[in-house]
Amino acid sequence: MRLAIVDDESVYRSEVAELISSVYGKAEVSCFLYADGSELIRSFENGFKIDAIFLDIEMKDVDGMTAAKKIREYSKDIPIIFLTSHTELAMDGYEVDAFRFLSKPVNEIKLRETLTDLEKKLKVDEKIVLKKDGEEIVYPVSDLIYVEAANNCVRFCFRSDSVELRMKFTDAVALVDELSSDFIKIHRSYYINLGHVRKLSAADVILDNKETLPVARSASAEAKKSLLEYIRRNGR
Q: From CA 189, how far away is CA 151, in angstroms rounded?
């Protein structure tokens, strides 16, 4: 793996690099160290390719969140792992589709767990197979934003496409549940991917494709609880 480590404190970026190397060995991973967000952005502008980014949020010049937003202009999918002393900033990471959050100083056990999950993401992204007109259409489950019940059909809404199939909504939910535990029912007609949530209120949810969906009053409390659990599960 080729990993970028961005931190304006040399002690921390060296520490993370050494911990990563102790897990994989220098033959299996290459760590590229950057002192601030602007250095990282320049490397992307020059076409440099990396597999994932460990990015400090609180930097003096170009901070991590600003750098991440710029990086998303070059890559929608590259995993970004934020390093921060303030875990309350986790919610802001939803704007840039953060992969994980690690508290500083970095805990070796948490880092190992993150690297294991990162390796799984880079090598195997679960796929959902939909059958339409006698053909099988394959999409990454992570690209599925929500499932919608529409009359006697179900619409699967992905990042850049949507597929409508004649099937029961309950069967569609069961299909998704076999592949991921990151989806919740917010309404009798909507089953959403928590990984695509940008803002959640008692009445509606805004997703990263700019769509706003209704949240049923009976589902509001559970939806908030599930989102917080998702953040804790994926943000530490």
A: 10
Strand partners, 131: 136
Q: Please, what is the end-to-end C-alpha distance for the chain in angstroms?
A: 21
Please tell me whether residues 169 and 222 are part of one structural domain. yes
Enclosing domain of residue 181 = 127-231
Region at 33 (left for phi over 0; alpha for psi -120 to 50; beta for the rest):
beta
Residues 116 and 150 occupy one common structural domain:
no
Task: Give the number of other Cβ atoms within 10 Å of residue 95's Cβ.
Answer: 14
**Cβ atoms of residues 57 and 64 within 8 Å:** yes
Q: Is residue 236 part of a domain?
A: no
d(C-alpha 99, C-alpha 234), whole Å: 7
- What are the structure tokens assigned to 55, written together? 């990015």
> In this structure, what CATH number is given to the domain that contains residue 27?
3.40.50.2300
The tens digit of pLDDT for each residue in 117-128 reads: 888 777 656 789
Give me the half-sphere count of Cα atoms (radius 13 Å) on the Cβ side of residue 30.
5
Summarised one tens digit per residue, pLDDT across range 191-218 is 999 999 999 999 999 999 999 999 999 9
Is residue 2 within 8 Å of residue 49, measured between CB atoms? yes
User: Is-above-0.85 flag for pTM?
Assistant: no
- CATH number of the domain residue 220 falls in: 2.40.50.1020
